[in-house]
Amino acid sequence: MKIFLSWSGTKSKNIAETLRDWLEQVIQSTEPWISTSIDKGRKWSKDISDRLEDSKIGIICLTRNNLNAPWILFEAGAISKTSDSYVCTFLTDINSPSEITGPLSSFQATRFTKEDVLKLCKTINSRIRETKGGKSLSDKALEDIFEIFWPKLQKRIDEILKSNKSSKNEQSEHIRSDRELLEETIEGIRFLKGKLNDLWTNKEIREIVSEYVGKYCKPKNLDHFDIIDEPHLSDFTEKLSKNPLIRKLFPTSKEFHEYLRNLYEVPF
Questions:
Q1: Model pTM?
Q2: Helices (DSSP H) in 7-96: which residue ranges?
Q3: H or E stretch covering 88
Q4: pLDDT in the model for residue 165
């Protein structure tokens, strides 16, 4: 069972790496993967795209500093588009799922407690059981193994959370990590903006935008094609301008207006 671990920022990366190593020991049929696993010299975009497509389970490692990180929002959305996928958020320094807002709030949250992490493991084990050819554990065996390995996970993540870095330094490191990731993956920024002549990319963007258009039009009893008329165009653009994914795809209102007109304007 392939599992995609999403992260953004140093703390989140350390938690994802710890969770990857721990899951491999507890449920050996799993194949947890994070982007730091990409071999040097390989094209990052293909590796990540392939993993996003193949993974049936996504675990989003959230901290207070990465709740609105564009990369996490993109990966969570990409995994959840598969009908039989399971996506959850993994909360460490966040006390309650109620603190999460926006798109990530729709996913099932796993708090960093013994009870919740065991539930997550049982869910993963159940998905393996449902998968053709998957080798799952019995519930009793999983519980026994979990009891042995839980203290190791608890200790390591507690160490990460109790690091001696000040909140100021931690925030600076988080920002720097995100910037480095985006700089290193400039091809990915173009990928997200739809600047490449790629059929898959354009299809994904259309689906994302169409979903938002539908949510806007339905309560107003509007047709999708009405979105390009005023005052709907300006109102819709203003509402979506706060969405981090839309801001990445369309940095200016003008670009977003042009895209909507091209998408919904009747050519006759």
A1: 0.61
A2: 10-26, 44-54, 70-80
A3: strand 86-91
A4: 54
